[in-house]
Structures are given as C-alpha cells and as structure tokens.
C-alpha cells in the first residue's frame, strides 16, 4: 500500500488529517492563483503563496495510470488518479479485480480505518 508522502502531524497538513479522520476529503486551494494541489504542504507549488484554504471534494476522478504489484500475498493496485477538479494523486485502487481495471475507469475516494493513525485516502471504482 502507498504510504503518505507528506507528514501527518505537521501544522500545514493537520486540516487534511482532521478531515480524513472524519472521512472527509479536503484539498488545499491557493487563495492567490485559485489552483488546487496535491499533496498538502505549507505553500502553493504553482505560485509559492502561503495563503491556502481547504476545500471539500467529493473525491471523484478517473484512473490516469496504474500498475499491479503481484509480489505480496495479494496483488494490489498502485494508481495515479486524476481528480475531476484538481490534481493527479498517487494512491491505491481497492476492492477491485486488478485484471478488470482500465485507464479512465471512474473512481471515488474511500477512507479505510487505520490502526493508530488517520485513514489515508484510497480509491474504489465508482
Ligand atoms: Zn498559487
């Protein structure tokens, strides 16, 4: 499974993790250039502004690219998901038969409970 590429307990990412703990998916949006980005961080990667807001997202998107890892006990799917409004993010596709997945399949974010930490955003077929 994909680990998170950003720190869980930093002040810059706390709104994301607080929302995730409540199964809400929020993304940072820049107040200056209005662009949404991934992953959460303390500044906009497009214009370097530190004036960010958080916007709730339905987490709808489509598979942009994916690969199936078959080295473990069970295969898992690593995928880039292009969100309908927003960035492309690296995650896992879960609860799906890897042999039946295709690029551009519609997916939606899901949060699975995690032990001792906030749940990470994963995706399932919509
Ligand atoms: Zn910006």
Description:
The protein has one helix and seven strands. It has a single domain (14-125), classed as Beta Barrel (OB fold (Dihydrolipoamide Acetyltransferase, E2P)). A hairpin with a 4-residue loop joins strand 4 and strand 5 (88-93). The protein is mainly β and 126 residues long. The model has no long low-confidence stretch (mean pLDDT 90). 6% of the residues lie in helices and 37% in strands. The longest helix is centred in the first third of the chain and has 8 residues, at 14-21. The protein has a five-stranded antiparallel sheet, with no helix packed on it. The two termini are 20 Å apart. The structure holds zinc ion.
In short:
The chain has 126 residues and is mainly beta. The protein has 1 helix and 7 strands.
Bound molecules: zinc ion
Q: Figure out the total of helices.
A: 1
Shape: globular
What does the main sheet amount to? 5 strands, antiparallel
CATH architecture: Beta Barrel
- DSSP E strands, number: 7
Query: In terms of per-residue confidence, which ranges show pLDDT below 50 for 5 or more consecutive residues?
Result: none
The mean pLDDT is 90
Strand-residue proportion: 35-45%
Which terms summarize this structure?
globular; 126 residues; OB fold (Dihydrolipoamide Acetyltransferase, E2P); single chain; five-stranded antiparallel beta sheet; 37% strand; mainly beta; binds zinc ion; two-stranded antiparallel ribbon
Topology:
Layout: H1 14-21, E1 25-30, E2 52-57, E3 60-69, E4 76-83, E5 88-93, E6 106-111, E7 121-125
Antiparallel strand pairs: 1-2, 3-4, 3-6, 4-5, 6-7
Zinc ion binds at residues 30, 32-33, 35, 44, 46-47, 49.
């Amino acid at each position: 499974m994909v680990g998170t590429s950003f720190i869980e307990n930093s002040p810059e990412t706390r709104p994301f993790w607080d929302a995730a703990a409540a199964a809400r998916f929020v993304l940072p949006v820049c107040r200056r250039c209005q662009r949404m980005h991934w992953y959460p961080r303390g500044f906009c990667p497009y214009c370097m502004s530190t004036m960010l807001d958080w916007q709730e997202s339905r987490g709808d998107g489509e598979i942009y690219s994916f690969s199936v890892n078959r080295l473990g006990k069970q295969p898992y799917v690593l995928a880039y998901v292009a969100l309908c409004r927003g960035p492309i993010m690296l995650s896992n596709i879960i609860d799906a038969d890897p042999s039946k997945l295709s690029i551009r399949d519609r997916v939606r974010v899901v949060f699975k409970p995690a032990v001792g930490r906030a749940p990470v955003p994963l995706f399932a077929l919509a």
